[in-house]
Amino acid sequence: MVYWLVSIPAPPAEADACWNSLQEDTTYQSDLSVNFHFKVPDFRVGTLDTLLGLSDDLLKVNSSVEGTVNKIRRQLFELQSSAVSGGGGEEAEEAGSGAALVEGTSPVDYLQHFEWQEAKFPVKRPLKQTIGAITDVIQALDDDLKLRTTEYTQLKTQLQGVLRKRTGSLAVRDLSDVVGPETLVDTENLVTLLVVVPRSSVPEFFKVYETLVDFGVVPRSAALAAEDAEHSVLRVVLFRRAADDFKAAARAKGFTAKEVAADAEAAKGNAEAVQRLRATLEAKRAEFEAWCAASYSEAFGSWIHVLAVRLFVESILRYGLPPQFVPVLMRPNPKHVSKLRKLLASKYAGVGSQFYGGEGGQETDIYPYVSFTLAIEERGA
């Protein structure tokens, strides 16, 4: 949803009349925009040089803070829409039922009813200190986000690697869960090997497997254990002393022979280890989601405070002292954006042109009034 944060030139005594005139032209007589009062405190102004320097800084700070807000929002909704599947362990995309809130309300409601947090950012404190404090908070959030994202991604990758061994192609997966331990011969002298063979080569394997080593393979012991679209797994019993030679001979033929321990407890332990890893990942996901929710609220609120300071600074530089402007939050009708801009340009043309206009972003230079565009995303896009 797109909003414009603007300041309309008007002496304090004419603020109400200016607001009413704007409402009449943009809302009552037409459907150009919905307007909201945007409360900007009476900050300490400082010197002109301070304001000019702050104007340049605010352009960069605003971009940085907005970027962090969007990164946290995207991560939050990715986590909210992801749940570790109880079956394959891959992430199943579901419609996220959560929402990004700012101090318990939606970002749009927070913006439309913005109140400066005096306890957190004292109005009488120099603006440079206020912006410095916000920058420190946002930098800490950004650093923490990177660290948490790395930890969560590593855990997901670890689980995906384990699951690939259990559920991937027979050519690469762990074969311990392909056959039950009770079907494996494992004695002092005999051992069972599982041989992965391309399905097209199974007939050839049955022809040659007994002769791959001399007097090592139990005749007619080969049996199909499992298969997928590309490979078959065959169970072969042979003398333990011939196992290594059989593996080498099979490899020369393009087959892969593997020894699997006939240990039911080990197989059970492997399955339990996967479940523990799933549980660990889900706990990490829930913890990360909670952090993102809290951090989004902090970051979004900080961003709107930066915009309030920026609007004040640019308005002083544009219209001069004492402060003589009306801050307004506008939600333009998407169908009439051009018409609304033309109306505002005509209504406030030339006002404030005798004052120096700070750089403050491209929009400040284009229009005869201070204007910033805000794109408020309430979902994860």
UniProtKB/TrEMBL annotation:
Lineage: Eukaryota, Viridiplantae, Chlorophyta, core chlorophytes, Trebouxiophyceae
A GO term from the CC aspect: vacuolar proton-transporting V-type ATPase, V1 domain
Subunit structure: V-ATPase is a heteromultimeric enzyme composed of a peripheral catalytic V1 complex (components A to H) attached to an integral membrane V0 proton pore complex.
Coiled-coil region(s): none
Pfam families (UniProt xref): V-ATPase_C
Family: Belongs to the V-ATPase C subunit family.
GO MF terms, alphabetically ordered: proton-transporting ATPase activity, rotational mechanism
This protein's name: V-type proton ATPase subunit C
Highest taxon in the source lineage: Eukaryota
InterPro entries: ATPase_V1-cplx_csu, Vac_ATP_synth_c_sf
Keyword Transferase annotated: no
Function: Subunit of the V1 complex of vacuolar(H+)-ATPase (V-ATPase), a multisubunit enzyme composed of a peripheral complex (V1) that hydrolyzes ATP and a membrane integral complex (V0) that translocates protons. V-ATPase is responsible for acidifying and maintaining the pH of intracellular compartments and in some cell types, is targeted to the plasma membrane, where it is responsible for acidifying the extracellular environment. Subunit C is necessary for the assembly of the catalytic sector of the enzyme and is likely to have a specific function in its catalytic activity.
Keywords: Hydrogen ion transport, Ion transport, Transport
